[in-house]
Specification:
alpha+beta, Ubiquitin-like (UB roll), 5 domains, 7-stranded mixed beta sheet, 4-stranded mixed beta sheet, 9 helices
């Protein structure tokens, strides 16, 4: 049957074709009704042949760049597409329009719309395009902003980069990855271009396509890494003072050493091509509590130095026993009441292990080895405890007085 837009042409019959119908048959002429029927039959047969010739057409159908020559009897573009099972959606384009009359030799072009993700000046959005390649799409989208890119998706299996359109309809593309730019054929698509260059993608790597003002289409591969980063930060310790009745006023001593604490923070850090682009705090806690330093401050009154009256001179001849029994001088009262911390600070800086630069004097009170042995010490004074050194210094004081420390001795009475 002719197409719904085909035109039925009126057929004119030559009168000579009807002459036999007018001749008598068996002495009788053919009746007019029979003549009419014969004419109708002839017209039907002849007209059908003419309509058949008019309806047949050969057209070119271009579906997303794939061109096919089609022989058809359809009278419209829509008829050809329906006959070939080609669906056209609301976003697709057809030229000429689907309702257009079809002529022999017509070219039908169909472009199916594809959804692409577009990066425009830092923001991403989804856009429908009927472009056949990334090159064509970017040319169309360049009016949207200065930095326009197509963002490739990642396949669920294999992690390949995919793009709903090709890279180019033919020609080279540049691929920027790992600080280098390499060139390959872009006609076979994005995945093929990366595979041809031996480029493997990590699970988080990003792939985008841009079109520089001059030059080939450019594929950009960004290496993305995300990891949890732990940072340790010291926490300074506090210091407090407490009264110490065992020490003289003005004396201080650390009774509890301060210890710095530690804070542990964990951040979720994203880097792109080695540059940190995002940091999200996951946790922040004190992992080690600081220990407060405690300083004892003396509250005991210092002793008052007592000057003893000089004893009458006694000659050895007059009182030999008394002269022989005279005790060693001990000026200033009991050794226990003296400021031994001040003496140690003056002699050794308060360090029990101190040794003089010439190696002859040791410990808090800078004993010589000989003097140390004379007051009952063994080994080196600098190897004894501070308490033992103080005890033996008091013995030395009781025997010989402060003169054993000619420079620092007065500190005992400070």
């Amino acid at each position: 049957m002719p197409g719904h837009l085909d035109v039925w042409n009126r057929v004119r019959l030559d009168s000579s074709l009807l002459a036999p119908l007018r001749r008598p048959v068996g002495g009788r002429s053919i009746r007019p009704r029979a003549i009419v029927a014969a004419i109708a039959t002839f017209a039907l047969l002849g007209g059908g042949a003419v309509a058949y010739g008019v309806a047949h057409k050969t057209v070119s159908v271009d579906i997303d760049g794939k061109v096919t020559r089609v022989s058809t009897y359809s009278g419209s573009v829509e008829g050809v597409l329906d006959a070939r099972g080609i669906h056209v959606g609301a976003r697709d384009t057809v030229a000429p329009g689907a309702a257009s009359a079809l002529l022999d030799g017509s070219d039908i072009v169909v472009r199916h719309a594809k959804l692409v993700r577009v990066h425009v000046d830092g923001a991403e959005t989804d856009v429908w395009t009927t472009a056949l390649s990334a090159d064509e799409a970017l040319s169309t989208l360049k009016t949207r902003g200065g930095d326009v890119r197509l963002v490739a998706s990642r396949s669920a299996s294999g992690g390949r980069a995919e793009l709903p359109v090709g890279l180019t309809t033919g020609g080279p593309v540049d691929v920027a990855v790992d600080g280098q730019t390499r060139t390959t054929d872009g006609a076979r698509g994005l995945s093929a271009a990366l595979s041809r260059l031996g480029i493997s993608l990590g699970a988080l790597d990003r792939v985008s396509i841009e079109r520089p003002t001059a030059g080939a289409v450019r594929v950009v591969v960004n290496r993305v890494f995300i990891k949890n980063v732990t940072d340790l930060t010291p926490i300074p310790f506090d210091s407090t003072e407490q009264p110490d009745a065992a020490r003289f006023v003005g004396q201080k001593s650390v009774t509890t050493a301060g210890v710095a604490g530690q804070r542990t923070t964990v951040n979720h850090v994203t880097t792109v091509d080695g540059t940190e682009t995002a940091r999200v705090l996951l946790s922040d806690a004190v992992s080690v509590a600081p220990v407060t330093e405690v300083v004892g401050v003396g509250t005991k009154d210092r002793p008052v130095a007592v000057t003893r009256a000089a004893a009458p001179a006694v000659t050895a001849a007059a009182a030999p026993e008394r002269a022989a029994a005279a005790p060693s001088p001990n000026v200033g009262g009991s050794a226990d009441s003296l400021n031994w911390a001040a003496l140690a600070a003056c002699e050794s800086g308060g360090r029990a292990t101190a040794v003089s630069s010439n190696g002859l004097y040791h410990g808090l009170y800078q004993f010589s080895v000989g003097t140390w042995g004379a007051v009952g010490g063994s080994g080196l004074p600098s190897e004894a405890s501070a308490d033992e050194q103080t005890m033996r210094a008091k013995i030395l004081y009781d025997r010989s007085g402060p003169g054993q420390w000619p420079h620092c001795g007065p500190q005992l009475f400070s």
